[in-house]
């Protein structure tokens, strides 16, 4: 069997080596249009920041090793320019020699990846304007900074790469402005959760500009750049990094007449076969099946790409591995001293869908509070009326992605919030609490579903009929001095039973505290005394996150 | 309803507060024979070590708060001495006043915990000999050390408390000898995994004595102690901590004629009801249902005790919560700079059962190797021939318990090694690899089950027929110089295809490398060339762990 693979990074290189392990006799040719294969694309920003010091570290598997150890015919700087599906022939251009030639195939695997989106912005091709996709781009940025002694940068786009680049350029000592067109960075999170990250990057000296985009780029005589934004402001800087999302590389697939799917990604079946049964596709260029919605989705992450590479190899050789196409979008990003992780659908996505959903917020500590160093993790979970988990988000300083990994695992089994209640997770004071953050999400969600804890949400407050409502903060007076929800009276929890007569039983009672725990106890007391009572999910801490806005010019 | 609770720590205090949240009217009396309730028992060793500095931090929920906030009638220094189940009456002795009295109950919840095992060792009651159970014990140890300027200690017992005490006393600057009667510390691990911890504690200056126990204790005129061991040696030290395991506090249950279970623990049904339907029991004193074996088991851990407390409250009030009794033994312990975690059954337990099992070892890195600071995690997983996961163990310096949490979650759903292959876990270079350690366990286990990677295990080597076998280390020559398995020839992986003629096809080929990855590739090559070939699971690194012995006297 002769197998040609287009693209030599996560999906392609993984498919190639797994193919060889499964079949010693197959002829395997790997075409990569760039200079490098199997490089550490997720590590590129950290090379810029100096965290990764050797460029060799970015090259995970050199071509020589693939040739020698796996007998894979690796051809770099070799772009597959055309597929002739009828003849099962591909056309290749060697960028080093300029020559073109053809190869036949029995099976073809496409792993072309996704390329940075480019918008038609005036001046976008000027020197000093970069995208970050491969090792060469990264080295070019590094050289440009050194050569031009660049000390300021505009990063356009607040996704994974934009945020990681902003952090790393800042850690390199630059003045950094991060410009994001929507009202939040890190789209996998909902805005109130992203607000924690906004605070963090501002506190680390990054100039954050939300709700505005780059409209024009101009070069000065000293090689510096003027960046004009859609809010009419201008920024003078030494260079610009464009990280405004990626788009599937579907050129070859389109040319070959393969069916496309959501976002012009390549459509594949559960075996990763495209609409042509001898052509397979994996990685950032394909549409996966979203594990929650069941719909086709674009999830451009390294984990799924690697698993797809393994899986497609087995399928090309006639095994039937069908579960690889499902993805949940488990992801994590480091943002200076914080960690943000998420899985599944967020509220923005759910609000647009027909899915009924509920949500809960908790702010538990990262490990036992009596052991030094515990920090709060802010968590949000979305779930269906039957308890099925739809998505979760967590932001904090330690043990953050661990919580999301566990929830992602429950979601793989179609699990519910009741399963989270019962999970038995490793506990010792330095690592966890006896009731883990994931348990707490389960407890609060189950309490909501069972009717044991009616809740309200911070964003509903403006709509609440003030006339017929009483807002009660059950925190202590010193805590309430630090802030509370509008028009709240203060009845500390431990005085509540003695002060029930202060509450009009004909009004709805809206209870809050700092994070929702004491509010829950107060709600239980009031419920059993016949009040119509609701607890603020996540307490005043969530209220603050929901109601934080960041001016476009930070201090 | 009048509910009496015996025992005010994890299970009892948790039950009391959940009862109140569910039922504002119930009369709830909490009896605790000690001085403190709801204290941080898992934190006690860290107070000795100075990591936790304030003794107030050890008192998680003071009695006043339980009284005020939860209207629980908390009675400390109050020992329940007898149950009269027919009359539904208990007898209580107040240790402060000396008086005895009775209380009636509608429902009784026993959460007496477990007490340190005491053996009939001569001199065991001498001054300077301690156990660690509660805050008072801990403060006594601290005072004794300060008053007597103790600078050396013998810790007897290598379980959680013994190991944590040895670490913390050592961090306080003492000469510490850790004595363990079996051939390993941390019984939840198998010995080869515990060997990593043995190395760690020896490297941190603890004198580790395995395979010997305390036979006699003698006091000197200067208050110092002579500890005689069963290996005939003697140790002169300033104090002794006995941590030789715990035993369920079943006195009350026995007196009341309640049925006992494994290890003389209290037998309960899925609602935590004892053999008397009005008496419930939770915590370290009860037998749980082991999630893997389905058998009654003693699992003394804070996580399950806390969940049981919540669950029993609901059941006492007539809800039917039935899943709380199942436990998997998920646990983690910090051992100086290492972390060890495990879940489910270990190989020692499986070898004694009728369960057929297989196993796999991997030594993946804690995060992407190209990002600084990655360290190896040594992992072992046990699984059934149908792929069901039976147990897992991990030892390393970071991201260790995270792996076990994920596996514990899969096990809760009865999941298999194939599920581990498909898990989509959060990945970014500082936190994980694109193929996570858990994925690697799944890949290797699935390869074994599918026959794609026949394996052998390090402990089988002495039994292998040398005459008809060839051992091949496919590492590089410099690596092989660092050590290899007995009688291995060296054929580096990248030369293997050219040197196949050196291997007698009539012999069995046993392949190894450093951790098993290159061995897998070599095995795939040789299998497809018709050889009868086996890969050493976990490679030479596992071989070393299996074959390490620690002399009873360390350097």
UniProtKB/TrEMBL annotation, chains A, B:
<protein>
    <submittedName>
        <fullName>Pyridine nucleotide-disulfide oxidoreductase family protein</fullName>
    </submittedName>
</protein>
<dbReference type="InterPro" id="IPR001763">
    <property type="entry name" value="Rhodanese-like_dom"/>
</dbReference>
<keyword id="KW-0285">Flavoprotein</keyword>
<dbReference type="InterPro" id="IPR050260">
    <property type="entry name" value="FAD-bd_OxRdtase"/>
</dbReference>
<dbReference type="Pfam" id="PF07992">
    <property type="entry name" value="Pyr_redox_2"/>
</dbReference>
<feature type="domain" description="Rhodanese">
    <location>
        <begin position="465"/>
        <end position="552"/>
    </location>
</feature>
<dbReference type="Pfam" id="PF00581">
    <property type="entry name" value="Rhodanese"/>
</dbReference>
<keyword id="KW-0274">FAD</keyword>
<dbReference type="Pfam" id="PF02852">
    <property type="entry name" value="Pyr_redox_dim"/>
</dbReference>
<dbReference type="InterPro" id="IPR036873">
    <property type="entry name" value="Rhodanese-like_dom_sf"/>
</dbReference>
<comment type="similarity">
    <text>Belongs to the class-III pyridine nucleotide-disulfide oxidoreductase family.</text>
</comment>
<dbReference type="InterPro" id="IPR004099">
    <property type="entry name" value="Pyr_nucl-diS_OxRdtase_dimer"/>
</dbReference>
<keyword id="KW-0560">Oxidoreductase</keyword>
<dbReference type="InterPro" id="IPR036188">
    <property type="entry name" value="FAD/NAD-bd_sf"/>
</dbReference>
<keyword id="KW-0676">Redox-active center</keyword>
<dbReference type="InterPro" id="IPR023753">
    <property type="entry name" value="FAD/NAD-binding_dom"/>
</dbReference>
<dbReference type="InterPro" id="IPR016156">
    <property type="entry name" value="FAD/NAD-linked_Rdtase_dimer_sf"/>
</dbReference>
């Amino acid at each position: 069997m002769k197998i040609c693979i287009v693209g030599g990074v996560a999906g392609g290189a993984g498919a190639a080596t797994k193919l060889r392990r499964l079949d010693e006799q197959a002829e395997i040719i790997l075409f990569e249009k760039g200079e490098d294969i199997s490089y550490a694309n997720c590590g590129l920003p950290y090379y810029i920041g100096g965290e990764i010091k050797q460029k060799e570290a970015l090259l995970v598997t050199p071509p020589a090793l693939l040739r020698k150890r796996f007998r894979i015919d690796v051809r770099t700087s070799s772009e597959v320019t055309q597929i002739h599906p009828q003849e099962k022939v591909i056309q290749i251009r060697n960028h080093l020699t300029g020559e073109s030639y053809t190869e036949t195939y029995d099976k073809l695997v496409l792993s072309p990846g996704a390329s940075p989106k480019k918008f038609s912005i005036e001046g976008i091709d000027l020197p000093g304007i970069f995208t970050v996709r491969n090792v060469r781009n990264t080295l070019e940025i590094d050289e440009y900074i050194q050569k031009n002694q660049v000390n300021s940068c505009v990063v356009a786009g607040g996704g994974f790469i934009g945020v990681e680049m902003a952090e790393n350029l800042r850690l390199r000592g630059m003045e950094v402005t991060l410009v994001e067109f929507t009202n939040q960075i890190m789209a996998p999170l909902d805005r109130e959760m992203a607000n924690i990250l906004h605070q963090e990057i501002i506190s680390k000296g990054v100039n954050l500009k939300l709700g505005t985009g780059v409209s024009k780029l101009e070069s000065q005589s000293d090689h510096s750049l003027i960046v004009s934004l859609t809010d009419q402001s201008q920024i003078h800087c030494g260079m610009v990094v464009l990280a405004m999302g990626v788009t599937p590389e579907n050129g070859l697939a389109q040319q070959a007449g393969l069916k496309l799917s959501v976002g012009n990604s390549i459509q594949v079946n559960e075996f990763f076969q495209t609409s042509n049964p001898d052509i397979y596709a994996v990685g950032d260029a394909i549409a996966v099946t979203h594990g929650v919605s069941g719909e086709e989705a674009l999830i451009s992450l390294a984990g799924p790409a690697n698993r797809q590479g393994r899986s497609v190899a087995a399928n090309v050789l006639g095994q039937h591995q069908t579960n690889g196409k499902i993805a949940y979008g488990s992801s994590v990003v480091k943002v200076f001293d914080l960690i943000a992780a998420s899985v599944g659908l967020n509220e923005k996505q759910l609000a647009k869908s027909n899915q009924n959903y509920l949500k809960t917020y908790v702010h538990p500590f990262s490990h036992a509070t009596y052991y030094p160093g515990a920090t709060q993790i802010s968590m949000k979970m979305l779930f269906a009326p039957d308890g099925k988990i739809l998505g979760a988000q967590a932001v904090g300083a330690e043990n953050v992605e661990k919580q999301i990994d566990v929830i992602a695992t429950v979601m793989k089994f179609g699990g519910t919030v009741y399963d989270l209640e019962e999970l038995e997770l490793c506990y010792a004071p330095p690592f966890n609490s006896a009731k883990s953050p994931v348990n707490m999400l389960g407890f609060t969600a189950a309490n909501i579903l069972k009717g044991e804890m009616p809740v309200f949400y911070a964003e509903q407050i403006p709509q609440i009929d003030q006339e017929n409502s009483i807002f009660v903060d059950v925190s202590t007076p010193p805590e309430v001095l630090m802030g509370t929800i509008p028009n709240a009276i203060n009845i500390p929890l431990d005085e509540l039973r003695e002060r029930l007569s202060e509450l009009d039983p004909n009004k709805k009672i809206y209870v809050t505290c700092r994070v929702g725990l004491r509010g829950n106890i107060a709600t239980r007391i009031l419920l059993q005394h016949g009040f119509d009572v609701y607890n603020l999910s996540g307490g005043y801490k969530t209220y603050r996150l929901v109601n934080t806005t960041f001016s476009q010019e930070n201090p």
